[in-house]
Amino acid sequence: MRFRPCIDLHQGQVKQIVGSSLSDQQAPKTNFVAQQDAAHFANLYFRDGLPGGHVIMLGPGNEQAAAAALQAYPQGLQLGGGIHAANAAKWLASGACQLIATSYVFKNGQLEHDNLRRLVKETGRERLVLDLSCARIDGRYVVMTDRWQQATNFEVSRPNLEALADSCCEFLIHATDVEGKQQGIDVDLVALLGEITPLPTTYAGGVRAQSDIDHIAQLGQGKLDFTVGSALDLFGGNALHYADMVAHYRT
Question: For residues 197 and 224, what is the distance between their CA atoms, to the nearest angstrom?
Fold first, then answer.
């Protein structure tokens, strides 16, 4: 199990935001705003040998910061946020090791097969990560899109993940109900992913203490990597220390 670091960008700044509060109507609930720029964090991850972290552009105005992070750690960071077939080649050429896609692949509440094929044609399977961030609705985990405001009809299930496995190299899955709230992980989702995922998968959402990381290791059956956001001292938290993540969860 690996620690996957993150750089969440909002209006050009590195922030920690309660993801479910993102909308076009109001400012999101923000837990932390960094004084340092995105390149600073990318340099840190490069120094400490932490490949495979993700840079997420939360809305417009983040392209310059994202490009600076990719330049600071070329071929070391995944990039997500507004990725589609027309801009994929540009971002790969800018230094992203993989691209993360959600809303382009899931349109109008369902999987858009043609868009997925277009994107895979541009990136290749080994350079595409599918973001299947999900919420529990009527007892099922379903993928959420459009700033996690739109529920799809795509269930996070064994057959569906196996069907997507031929098109991508990894999954990134935020538990949207708990992400950014520091109230603990979604243990049911972690256990489900440990049972069904056919690909390397990064879980994010709700990590607040070492016990949460231990639960991910156990319930995830060694198949899941993890991300820590607001609880990490790097982002203003006091429960978990970045140096410990580097020492114990780096491969």
Answer: 9
Decide if 1 is inside a domain. no
Q: Two tokens at 173?
A: 């899955």
For residue 228, pLDDT beyond 90? yes
Number of domains in the chain: 1
- Residues 51-79: tens digit of each pLDDT: 999 999 998 999 999 999 999 999 999 99
Give the structural domain span for 69: 6-248
How crowded is residue 47: how many other Cβ atoms within 10 Å of its Cβ? 10
pTM, full prediction:
0.94
> Which strands form 150-155's sheet, in the order they lie side by side?
134-137, 140-145, 150-155
Hey, what amino acid is at 219? L
Whether residue 55 is contained in a domain is answered as yes
Q: DSSP letter at 187?
A: H
Spatial distance between the Cα atoms of 185 and 111, rounded to a whole number of angstroms: 26
Among the listed residues 57, 58, 111, 104, the one whose alpha carbon sits nearest the alpha carbon of residue 84? 104
Q: What sections of 79-186 are H helices per DSSP? A: 88-93, 113-123, 158-164
Structure tokens, 250: 């780096």
Q: For the stretch 206-225, what's the b/e string if a residue is b when 16 or more beta carbons lie within 10 angstroms of its beta carbon?
A: bbbeeebbebbbebbeebbb
Residue 228, both tokens:
């820590």
What the block records as the tokens of 227 is 């991300």
Q: Quick check: is 122 in a domain?
A: yes
For residue 186, tell me if it sits in a domain. Answer: yes
Q: Two tokens at 126?
A: 């080994």
Domain harbouring 244, CATH code: 3.20.20.70
